[in-house]
Specification:
It contains 13 helices and 14 strands. The protein is of the alpha/beta class and 352 residues long. It has two domains: 156 residues, Rossmann fold (3-Layer(aba) Sandwich); 182 residues, Rossmann fold (3-Layer(aba) Sandwich), CATH 3.40.50.720. The strands form three sheets. A seven-stranded parallel β-sheet has the order 10-9-8-11-12-13-14, with helices on both faces. A five-stranded parallel β-sheet has the order 2-1-5-6-7.
């Protein structure tokens, strides 16, 4: 077994999680540490958001049946060069660093850890929302520079409160549900647009509405949708223009959901009060990006899910699926459950 940890989901956390659910006598674990986040992730071969080197990973996988990782690049080349591999457990919400088609073709089952960072991301979303509404980063920077700006108190420069505000959520998954709970505590009215959620599921916590209605009624918009062909660019120029003057947009989901150029135009014109982003169309942000010069934007470098609890949750979730695999039980979060059957057809009955 191989742990391919990094500097967030540590090899030691993965090892401890494994030994907490699997007898030590059943474990023969080696470690292979990846450079993320000290070195940004990016595309490697045909996979995205991966970290490390294919050749070093291939060497580390020699004779390995099970690998638990967060960022290792499981490209077609790596998978094809690892004939003993049966299971890859990715400690992320989705296995974007794995070529699933190649894994399935080679009979390698892939799992992930959905919901691992839901609480951390929800908390960060609220922090970003409040920061944009109350100009916290800007005023802090001024004070650090020795500048006391009384004009922040002018009526046209102050922001809204959450108490009594109408907040629109685009998407109502694990993170959206937690954000709704927090907003309820602030006394906000919550509207939700999610084609897969109806009013019965929302209960008294929020109201289900259409997308156009949500845009027209919300003074704050926060994005929590997955990126699909239907959601890519869903917050474009027309949708931003449909927001009421002085609105705030928060995106801690994925950069592809939002037209950032149109948003910068809306901030420059004064149509929007502010915006807060943890995700971007290109990461790291290029030095030429308008996001670095447009006023009233709060930004963090894709770390909404970064908490100690997230790392511990990630290790715990993948360790449980490794235990299930070793005990012959159904896996919790298999992304390609058909791989095990394909493996048996290839090898005539290997465990899978």
């Amino acid at each position: 077994m191989l742990t391919a940890g990094d500097n967030f989901v540590l090899d030691s956390l993965l090892q401890d999680a494994l030994t907490s659910v699997i007898p030590a006598a059943s474990l023969d674990v080696t470690h292979h540490t990846l450079p993320w986040p000290d070195v940004p992730f990016g595309p490697i071969g045909e996979v995205i958001e991966a970290s490390g080197d294919e050749d070093r990973l291939i060497e580390a996988l020699r004779g390995v049946e099970v690998c638990v990782t967060q960022m290792a690049p499981f490209t077609e080349r790596v998978i094809a060069a690892s004939p003993d591999l049966r299971l890859v457990c990715v400690s992320r919400g989705g296995p974007v660093n794995v070529n699933l088609e190649a894994a399935t073709a080679h009979g390698v089952t892939v799992t992930s850890a959905p919901g691992r960072n839901a609480e951390a991301t929800a908390e960060h979303t609220l922090a970003m929302m409040l920061s944009a509404m109350r100009r916290i980063p800007q005023t802090n920077a001024d004070l650090n520079a020795g500048v006391w700006r009384g004009d922040y108190y002018r009526y046209e420069n102050v922001g809204p409160e959450l108490e009594g505000a109408t907040v629109g959520l685009v998407g109502y998954g694990a993170i959206g549900r937690r954000v709704t709970r927090m907003l309820n505590g602030f006394g906000a009215e919550v509207l939700v647009f999610d084609p897969y959620v109806d009013q019965d599921q929302l209960g008294s916590h929020a109201r289900a509405v259409g997308f156009d209605d949500l845009l027209a009624r919300s003074s704050i918009i926060t994005l929590h949708a997955r990126v699909t062909p239907e959601t890519t660019g869903m917050m474009g120029r027309d949708q931003i223009a449909a927001l009421s003057p002085g609105a705030v947009i928060v995106n801690c989901a994925r950069g592809a959901l939002l037209d950032y150029d149109a948003l910068c135009d809306a901030l420059d014109s004064g149509h929007l009060f502010g915006a807060a982003f943890d995700v971007f169309p290109e990461e790291p942000i290029p030095a030429s990006s308008r996001l670095l010069t447009t006023p009233n934007i709060v930004m963090t470098p894709h770390l909404a899910g970064a908490s100690k609890a997230t790392a511990l949750n990630a290790a715990r979730i993948v360790a449980e699926d490794v235990r299930r695999y070793l005990d012959g039980e159904p896996l919790l979060y298999a992304a390609n459950p058909e791989a095990s059957a394909h493996r048996r057809s290839l090898s005539g009955g290997d465990r899978g």
